[in-house]
Amino acid sequence: MNFKDYIRVIEDFPQPGISFKDITTLLRDGQAYKAVIDELARRLKDKEIDCIAGPEARGFVIGAPLAIALGVGFVPIRKSGKLPGATIEADYALEYGKDKLAMHNDAIAPGQKVLIADDLLATGGTIATSINLVKQLGGEVMGAAFLIELLELNGREKLDGIEVFSLVQY
Ligand code: 5GP
């Protein structure tokens, strides 16, 4: 299956000059969505992973079903102010904007092996911040998995040499 056939590219969203990769057209197709999760699970099944952490909102859409497929737990990474318990926070910069990401301070036990998952790797800012949060909690980051990687933005270079898995590249 060619996943690119299911991804819709919308020019100038959310601002002029951005070529947005819209995955909603893939997600609404049950076979394509399942094929994405199955393929990521196939590539990751031999990795030692205790849990998957994913940033809201599209990191949940990839990370949670992948966690079920691999038989591990899922930990949400959220925008500041959304999690009910005590949190740790870190600043991050997006391809187009700025914010803070947060995790519950007991979400990961020291030494746990964590895979980070999101829909798309652009500049790497979101995942670099996610890695920072997981490491603050004592987690060991085993890799980062994406449906899409935007190669020209060189996001991999921000990820401290962590192994990157991506199914589709632009
Ligand atoms: P980065 O932090 O790597 O620059 O940006 C990646 C984050 O922004 C991801 O969480 C992703 O959901 C979102 N993002 C940025 N550009 C796009 C895009 O073209 N399509 C989608 N689906 N998400 C994007």
Strand content: 35-45%
Shape: globular
Compute the number of strand runs.
9
H and E order: EEHHEHEEEEHEE
Q: Based on helices, strands and strand pairing, what is the structural class?
A: alpha/beta
Number of domains: 1
Give unreliable regions as ranges: none
The molecules bound to the chains, other than polymers, are: guanosine-5'-monophosphate
Rg is 15 Å
| Assembly category | single chain
Helix content: 25-40%
CATH architecture: 3-Layer(aba) Sandwich
Which CATH C-level class is it?
Alpha Beta
Write up this protein:
- This protein has helices at 24-27, 30-44, 58-70, 125-136; strands at 8-11, 19-22, 51-55, 73-79, 87-94, 97-104, 113-121, 140-149, 164-169.
- Helices cover 26% and strands 36% of the residues.
- With 170 residues, the protein is of the alpha/beta class.
- The mean pLDDT is 96.
- The strands form 2 sheets. It has a 7-stranded mixed beta sheet with strand order 5-6-4-3-7-8-9, with helices on both faces.
- The chain has one domain (47-169): Rossmann fold (3-Layer(aba) Sandwich), CATH 3.40.50.
- The protein has 4 helices and 9 strands.
- Strand 3 (51-55), helix 3 and strand 4 form a beta-alpha-beta unit.
- Bound molecules: guanosine-5'-monophosphate.
- Guanosine-5'-monophosphate (5GP) binds next to strand 2, strand 7 and helix 4.
Give the SSE map:
Blueprint: E1 8-11, E2 19-22, H1 24-27, H2 30-44, E3 51-55, H3 58-70, E4 73-79, E5 87-94, E6 97-104, E7 113-121, H4 125-136, E8 140-149, E9 164-169
Helix pairs in contact: 2-3
The structure holds guanosine-5'-monophosphate.
Guanosine-5'-monophosphate binds at residues 20-21, 23, 55, 58, 94-95, 118-126, 155.
